[in-house]
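Query structure, 110 tokens:
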């Protein structure tokens, strides 16, 4: 099944009146919904990446501080740090997948 291409449609006055009355949905409304969905997905992924980067920095800083205090526990601290960083990095990946799914299966777009 071929996907239809997006095209710019300039509605006439009657179509605008029907849209304002709530009797017809225009392609302009659909385009606005799609644009808002993409913008919201970009904001969500950006905030998730920012949060993960902040968390990674804090975990790494505390791990370096712990190794400086107890050098003999270096191996266990590094293992704990790497596991924590891996778990923290999964958050923006999950956020990106959810955002992409919501953009492509938007319930507001017919």
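Result returned for the query:
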């Amino acid at each position: 099944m071929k996907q239809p291409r997006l095209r710019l449609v300039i509605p006439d006055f009657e179509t605008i009146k029907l849209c304002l009355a709530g009797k017809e949905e225009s392609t302009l409304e659909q385009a606005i919904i799609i644009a808002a969905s993409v913008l919201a997905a970009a904001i969500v992924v950006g905030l998730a990446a920012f949060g993960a980067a902040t968390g990674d920095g804090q975990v790494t800083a505390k791990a370096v501080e712990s190794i400086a205090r107890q050098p003999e526990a270096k191996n266990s601290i590094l293992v704990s740090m790497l596991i924590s960083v891996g778990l923290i990095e999964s958050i923006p990946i999950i956020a990106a997948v959810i955002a992409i799914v919501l953009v492509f299966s938007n319930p507001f777009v017919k």
